[in-house]
Every structure is written in C-alpha cells, then in structure tokens.
Amino acid sequence: MTQPFAYSEGRLQAEGVAVEDIAAAVGTPFYLYSASAMQQAYRRFAGALQGAGLDALVCYAVKANPQLAVIATFAAEGAGADVVSEGELRRALAVGVPAEKIVFAGVGKTAGELALGLEAGILQFNVESREELRLLDQVARDKGVQAPVALRVNPDVDARTHAKITTGKSENKFGIDCDDAAAVLQEAVALPGILPVGLATHIGSQITDLEPYEAAFQRVAGLFAEQREAGVPLQRLDLGGGLGIAYQQEALPTPEDYAAVVARTAGRLDVPLVFEPGRHLVGEAGLLISRVVYVKQGRSRRFLIVDAGMNDLMRPALYEAWHDIVPLREPASAARLRYDVVGPICETGDLFAEGRELPELAAGDLVAFGAAGAYGATMASTYNSRPPVAEVMVQGDSFEVIRARPSHDALMRSESLPSWLGKVPKSG
Ligand SMILES: Cc1ncc(COP(=O)(O)O)c(C=O)c1O
Ligand SMILES: N[C@@H](CCCC[NH3+])C(=O)O
C-alpha cells in the first residue's frame, strides 16, 4: 500500500484511523478515500506544471470518481472540472466549481447537454466531430450566444496502454483527425454560434510511458501554431489527462517528468494550458475494503471468496487489471498461500486475482484492494441485486460516510409494477 495507508501496531491505518474500526461502523464492502492523499496528489501535479513555468488550469476528470466530496476536495484546492455528461456537469456546479473552470468533453453530447453548458457559461466545449460542431452552433444561436470551442484532435498516437482505454488512435471514436482539423476550424470560424478558442487532445488512460505524450503533444502543438498563424484565434491548449499510477509499486514517470515533456512540446506556444487528470489524482488515494466470507478448498484451487464482487470493482474483470490485496491485520509471518480471489457474483469472470500469493486468511478476515480510488465505485453496478457499495472519506483522525449504502427497500421503492400486475407487496 502507498501512503497514507500503512500498518501501525499491526492494523492497517488510513491517515489516523484504523480501517477495521471503519469497517465495524460501516459494514463491508466499502470504498475508503483519503482526503489528504487527494490533496497531495493534486498539489504535486499542479506544482510540477507551475514549476516547469507553465500557465496551467487543472480540471479534475470527474469520471474517475464523481463523488461530490471528491470533486469538492479538488475544488477547494482551486481545481476546475472536466465533465462528460449532464450529470457530471451538475455535480461540478453543485459543489461550487466555477463554470469558467469547467470543460465539457465527450463524443455524444446531446442538444440538451450543450444547452446546459451554455446556460452555465462553461470555459469550453471540447468538440469531437463536425456534426457536434453544427449542433452546438444551432443551440448557441437559438440562445443568441456564442459557444467557446476547443476542437478535440486525434493525433493518431498509440498510448501503449490497454486497448480498451486508448483514445488517440485514428480508429478510435474520439476527436477529429489532425489532417481534417484545419478544414473543421475554418468551418468553426464561419459559424456565427461558434467561437473557436483552442485545441484539445487526450490520448488514453493509465499511460506509463512519456513517449506517446511527447509525440502527441508535438503534433498538436504544431497544428496549434500553424492554425494560429493562419488567423484562427486560438488562445488555449487542452492536453487531456491519462497519467498513470503504480498498481504494483512499479516505477513510473513522475508529474515533474510529465511537466518537462509538456514544457518541451507545448511551452513554446506561450498560451494557457488545460489538463484533465483523473486517475492520477484519486487512484492511489482509495481502497476497497471487503470481508472474507469463505475460504473454499477446491480440487485444484483455493478460493478466497470475499463479499465484494465484480459489480463493486469491475476493473479486474474488464481489463484483467491488477489491484494489490492486503489483509487489514499485518501478517505475523512471511508464509504465503496461493488463492484465487473471487466475489459472490454468479459469473466465472468475477475474479479479482488468480493464484495470488497472500498470507493465510480465514473467514471473517478483512482485506483491502489497493489503488481503487479511480474507476472503482463510479463503474459499480447493482448486478445480482446488490446495493451500491458504500463510500467513506477519511481526513486526519476522522472519517465520514460520503455515500451511504441504500437499503434493499429503498432500491425496490424506485421501481413499480405495471398496472396489470398490481402493486409491489411490502417487503418483510
Ligand atoms: C477526455 C478525457 N479527459 C480526461 C480523462 C481522464 O483520464 P485519466 O483518469 O486517465 O487521467 C479521460 C479518460 O480517459 C478522458 O476521456
Ligand atoms: N475505466 C478505465 C479508464 C477509462 C478512462 C476514461 N476515459 C479504467 O478503469 O482504467
């Protein structure tokens, strides 16, 4: 586990709180976030950009973890928000992120979402297609305003990450091909409802190698300079997010290394830059806490069956992603056993780790899944009619539930039977 999660007197602590005390109060499974770890990650990232002499606005990518408490933690640090839906926009505004620090990305923004962004007065729409540009023009003209637009360009660079989270190759659905950008910008300049203000790019997520960034930023900065010279009034460059985190304590590029690449490639443009980090700010600040239900000895495998499932943390099932697993009680010996760590869901793919070496564990023991703060709770579902997982934030010596686990009754109350089937009977 990385800081701020460490053993003290044999018990895993989150900042100043023993995690098993939270488990006793909240029940399992639950996500646990460290506010201080988020603040530190933000300060390091923003500080690295500033240290490299860059004029940077850091817009936290809300999709990584959209809890109001999380967005508010970053807003208090001065962050803006990168949103991709009406829901995310409403969340950012609700906790006081200033509209002029909000960028709106996404390939499928609807007319309603575009209108909401215009009404709020957001900094810019990162437009991903000609079709979207034309719809935005219409929506803006209907309102008698101009929409600030950064054209999201696709630099056709392989981010060397998992195929499902790479976004900057020409075969991906994201952005406008760099070679088509000049023509689309010309159209943008001519549209009365559009004010072209910049370019944007985002090549993928969990990027652990700076070379793809270097190639992409160089390409986009070149295009920016060219178009500015051609008279397009570009004033801002959005370089997206994607900087990776250590899921297995591997050595990775630091924010300072990343900032140096930005300075080398885009610094010469001398314009304000926007960044959209998500995972890098929240990933290592979160754990998923779960209890062992059974240790099942099969013929060829030993299964550690825990009370969290793929519905709570789907990254291993979806991307075969690795999350560290540690007991909340510090192991007394160095002996290790091999386990297949699985959840209770009726799917063979409900597998967190195969043949993982862990200290000996027994039913009732508590475990933590590491680096679960990003793309964990936000991708959870209620599959197998399991209530959404609870979420808790810790700061210093105190913790608070930031999203309670709804009751089964509350979940059923949101449904109804069609009239021909009568009423939902009250559950006992
Ligand atoms: C447009 C855009 N910006 C920012 C992000 C945040 O990515 P990450 O959490 O990897 O920083 C994403 C997700 O990949 C995205 O699609
Ligand atoms: N959901 C992905 C990241 C997607 C990034 C969103 N553009 C993950 O868990 O790694």
Structure description:
By secondary structure, the chain is an alpha/beta fold. The chain has two domains: about 5-35 and about 285-415, Lyase, Ornithine Decarboxylase, Chain A, domain 1, CATH 2.40.37.10; about 35-280, Alpha-Beta Barrel (TIM Barrel). The chain contains twelve helices and 21 strands. It has helices spanning about 20-25, 35-50, 70-75, 85-95, 110-120, 130-145, 180-190, 210-230, 255-265, 280, 315-320, 410-415; strands at about 5-10, 10-15, 15-20, 30-35, 55-60, 80-85, 100-105, 125, 145-155, 175, 195-200, 235-240, 275, 285-295, 300-305, 325, 335-340, 350-360, 365-370, 390-395, 400-405. Strands 4, 14, 15, 16, 17, 18, 19, 20 and 21 form a nine-stranded mixed sheet that branches. A hairpin with a 2-residue loop joins strand 1 (about 5-10) and strand 2. Helix 2 runs parallel beside helix 9, helix 5 crosses helix 6 (about 130-145) and helix 7 (about 180-190) runs parallel beside helix 8. It is globular, with a radius of gyration of 23 Å. The two termini are about 40 Å apart. The relative contact order is 0.16. The model has no long low-confidence stretch (mean pLDDT about 95). Bound molecules: pyridoxal-5'-phosphate and lysine (LYS). Pyridoxal-5'-phosphate binds near residues 105, 242, 276 and 279.
